[in-house]
Amino acid sequence: MKISASFLSSHYISRDLEKLNVTDIDYIHVDVMDGKFVRQKSLPFKELKNIYKYTSKRLDVHLMEKDPRKDIRNFALLNCEFITIPIEIDVPLFDYIDLIHRYGIKAGLAISPHTDIEKVYPYLEKIDLVLVMAVEPGMGGQEFMLETTVKLAKLKQKIEEEKLKVLISVDGGINLETKDYVKDVDILVSGSCIIHSDNFQETITKLRS
Ligand code: DX5
Ligand code: ZN
Questions:
Q1: How far, in Å, is the centroid of ligand 2 from the Cα of 29?
Q2: Which atom of ligand 1 is nearest to the CA of 194?
Q3: Rounded to an integer, what is the distance from CA 201 to the centroid of its chain?
Q4: CB of 167 closer than 8 Å to CB of 131
Q5: pLDDT, position 11
Q6: In sequence order, which residues have a C-beta less than 8 Å from that of residue 43 and are 6 or more positions away?
Q7: 2-208: CATH topology
Q8: Whether the CB of 143 sits within 6 Å of ligand 1
Q9: Pocket residue to mutate for ligand 1, from 3, 142, 178, most atoms within 8 A of Cβ
Q10: What is the domain partition of the chain in residue ranges?
Q11: Over the chain (209 residues), what is each successive 10-residue block's mean pLDDT?
Q12: Can you give the pLDDT at residue 14?
């Protein structure tokens, strides 16, 4: 199991990034919000791009945007492992997935709590990651929605049945208690639990166990 630390980018904190950089965290999860797909708005790319100054970790970019085309191109210039876009937006998703792949980056689809997991099935052959949201997208520090576990189980079964290589990531409300509900996933995204802890490394190790 890998851990992706959401450093709560709406309050861009270089100190947290530097602290994460000396842990064995697998990825830095970067939440990007446009004020349209979600009400909240993150810093513009010209400021967010400075992330690279504080971390050498691979980025797990989560674009919560109505039209992420521009930011796919922007973030593709950074050290990205994944770029994930929401499944609920009205854009040609297959084209956007291709665009991400053309940069040599793994493509993900994020699925909000109220969207049926079946919606992602037609894309599974084309994507590398499904980011299952366990909270309403928009902000850190919310409570894990227990219904997410049913979705995760269905998705896992589908991936196994079809022998696909898609990774499952879960995002929102993950802490030292809720991690036990999602044992079967490949990546855990965790923000407040790590960032608000006294010892980042100790928390990361516990989240993995
Ligand atoms: C929610 C974001 C999450 C969030 C995670 O909109 O996509 O990545 O920052 O934060 P916690 O772990 O605090 O729920
Ligand atoms: Zn996120």
A1: 6
A2: 12
A3: 20
A4: no
A5: 53
A6: 9, 10, 12
A7: TIM Barrel (3.20.20)
A8: no
A9: 142
A10: 2-208
A11: 82 80 97 96 91 94 98 97 98 98 98 98 98 96 97 98 97 98 96 95 97
A12: 83
